[in-house]
Amino acid sequence: MTSRAEAGRFPRQLGVVAIAALFVAPGLLVVWRAATFGGSAADTLAELREPALRSLQLALLVSLSAAILGTTLAWLTTCTDLPGRRVWRVLLVLPIALPSFVGTTAILAGFTPGGFLASIWEALGAEPPRRIRGLFPAWLLLTLFSYPFVLLPVSARLRALRASLDESAQLLGASAIERFVRITFPQIRAAIVGGTLIVALYMLSEFGAVQLLGFDTLTRVIYATRQVDRATSFMAAAMLFAASLAVVAAVRAGYGRVATDVRAGTGPARLVRLGWAAPFALLVCVGVVAVGIGAPLSSLITWAARGIREGRVSLGDLLTPIQNTAQVAVLTAIVTLLVVLPVAISAIRHRDVAGRAASVAIVAGFALPAIVIALSIAVLALNTPTLNRLYQTMPLLIVAYVVHFGSQALGSVEQGVRAVSPAVLDSSRLIEPSWWRRLLRIELPLMRNGLVAGGGLVVLAVVKELPATLLLAPIGFRTLSTDVWASFEEGFLANAAVGSLALLAVSGTLSWLLVFRDGVTRDL
Amino acid sequence: MNRRLTLSSALLISLVALGSSCGEDEADLTIYSGRTDDLIGPILDDFSKETGIKVEVKYGQSADLALLLDEEAEAGRDNVDVFISQSPGAMGYLEDRGRLATLPSNVLELVPTEVRDDEERWVGLTGRQRVLVYNSDLLDAESLPSSVFDLTDPEWKGRIGVAPGNGSFQDFVTAMRITEGDDATIAFLEGLAANDPVTYENNNAIVEAVARGEVEVGLVNHYYNYRRLVEVPDSPTANHVFDEGDPGALLIITGIAILEGADGNEDALKLVEWLLGVEAQKYFADETFEYPLAIGSTPSSGIPSITFADVGGIDFSDLGAGLQRTREMITEAGLAG
């Protein structure tokens, strides 16, 4: 047994190293260019100090609030008798389905005279806010646009918990809060940390909302200087990459040691009764959904309705982009799982150095803005013989998506791998000698919750991705997000709104079909 | 489980099939366009219908497409024929990098000399005038300044919106450097910065902020408010044009060029000529509210007319090249925050 495992080790590590190389390649290219582009490093660093501090500030604040909000909502919708929790489970995911620039534009527009949000303020007898800029609105909106990154993995984890411990504690007289703190929390801690890390990295690379809210972060510098001052742009991107590698390595080293009982649950625990707290819990859910998705929708629907009424919008144009978007999102999710799963197995089951290093590479890549990853992959593909034939083809676009979004799947996939206990693995070896049949019939079904959640996050991310799609997609390949961007860019609000609503519908449908439909993640 | 597996494999197979059937017919002409599909797509379709020349287009931000074209050329790839740019900056970048082909004189002469490249590598398609957009609930037209330099007056403190990182603002500053000199431009930028203007990422964001009353006036291109009034008819926003010859009333050019690798491509030349023809220029004037640039074309009736002398004899080909220094000046004045 041992000798066979040893024999398989070298090729496996080689494969994992190759995957790691793919994920760090854009970052390394950025570092190399920052080093070779010249310019005074000292001057540039001085210029970048303030934006870098603002990036870190935003990342810290938003990840903290998203962790609290995401965990609370996951617990409410999974473990309690919250009224309508099956509906909330879907509604509460929607805020990450809209691209942040769409959500922010729509909310800002809602406060202009005649906007829906402004009219609510006026109906309440208040002056609508005129100045919506800086850290506070950026923190608020980005928290509401990003908490689902915590909510989804934590919900998946909560659903997989074993009820027995919790029930024993209940019999011994522990209160709901006590049981959450002492029994549930230690078991979902890894999922919270994983989700929060993604939020933090997302904030480092965020561009859409921060630029519209005038919060000047490193990412904004990267964009503003990308053509006129390339040395500064690459220096800023290299800084982001270095910072994210350090953060990810530190966080993973820390929580990698936390031992948790990760065996799959035997059945759902009894639901906690909210009682008098139910109205407050409902109020939180209503508030989050109202601001995170309701407020943007109010503007989008206003524009779309006006455009359709005046005959300025043709819905038939949307069929091709809808089909393209759904197709590329699902394909990318599948490829991402195939790429990420071996790394997760290597890191968690075999505790390889290669696997753990690859995990860091996959996660850290998310802190690079998509435009940087897209250009880097374009440059790498253009200058590599054979690979250059893939330039601006679907496979290369999917590679770029995988590199950018592998991080989003990894956390959930790791939870899936952890759900297959060593004991199950050992006994399965006795009854099923063929490894792939073991994988197909025993391991994958046990991992399903994690894989499905990871794939779902990738689908949501791809549907709204913009910079890589614009640069790397085959020429003439239209997606909903490229259409929406183009329309917003030139102020064609009705077209942009109709496209955004279609985008939301595609995200909603795909994630319902693939992730949230009853039975997809529940019946293990 | 089994039923679901069958279902998902069926879905997967159909997706892959869709993907492989998606390959379109070979196009005759490949275009990278910094002008979006909404603005230029319909007229490109008309071109294909009329001439039988099939085009394929990659849309994106002008700056990104220019960077990509540069990287492609660097790697020896030359399958893009035409570049259409939203701003002179991106065009100038490619020209500096030696990526543009020379245009024949019969094409260049379709537009006045002011709006074509001195080195004969690009021509202007349409123009957008720099204006001051203002909130008509908060301000009277009579109270607005006649020159952009007046915005450095302390009475405007905290009331102005600008987009210092945006291409059109940078083009405006570069033009001011050419007509007024660097010292006057630095003084203007410092005076503007001293008035604590609110900075935005682009023209749309400024027009919206003016509508909201976040700022009272904003430096933008004329076109965005016309577009907004179509989408939001009761928007309390209006354009104010500075006096003739004022650098604040500059015409920003959107241009077209043929890539070095497509030098002499007949179809590409035909496209450039066609877009400067009567039908296309009328489309730009009426549908996108821009100033048509071809000799003999006229702007849409709702738009104030303009003569090229209005914006002075500015050498637009300098706009791209001086951009890095322009950006430094904007940053040093404390505006890029």
Largest sheet of chain B: 10 strands, mixed
Helix-strand sequence of chain B: HEHEHEHHEEHHEHEHEEHHEHH
> Main β-sheet of chain A, in a few words?
none
- The string of secondary-structure elements of chain A, in order, is HHHHHHHHHHHHHHHHHHHHHHH
Strand content of chain A: under 5%
The structural class of chain A is mainly alpha
Percent of residues in helices of chain A comes to over 70%
Mean pLDDT of chain A: 86
Overall outline of chain B: globular
- Strand elements of chain B, count: 10
What is the CA–CA distance across the termini of chain A?
A: 29 Å
Unreliable parts of chain A:
1-5
Q: Whole-number radius of gyration of chain A?
A: 23 Å
Q: How much strand of chain B?
A: 15-25%
Count the DSSP helices of chain B.
13
Mean pLDDT of chain B: 85
How far apart the termini of chain B lie comes to: 56 Å
Explain what the structure shows:
The complex is a heterodimer of chains A (524) and B (337). Chain A is built from 23 helices and no strands. In chain A, helix 10 packs antiparallel against helix 18. Chain A is globular. Chain B is α/β, with parallel strands linked by helices and 337 residues long. Helix content of chain B is 42%, strand content 15%. In chain B, strands 1, 2, 3, 4, 5, 6, 7, 8, 9 and 10 form a 10-stranded mixed beta sheet that branches. In chain B, helix 3 packs parallel to helix 4 and helix 6 crosses helix 13. Classes of the chains: A mainly alpha (524), B alpha/beta (337). At the A-B interface, helix 12, helix 14, helix 15, helix 17 and helix 21 of A face helix 1, helix 2, strand 2, helix 3 and helix 4 of B.
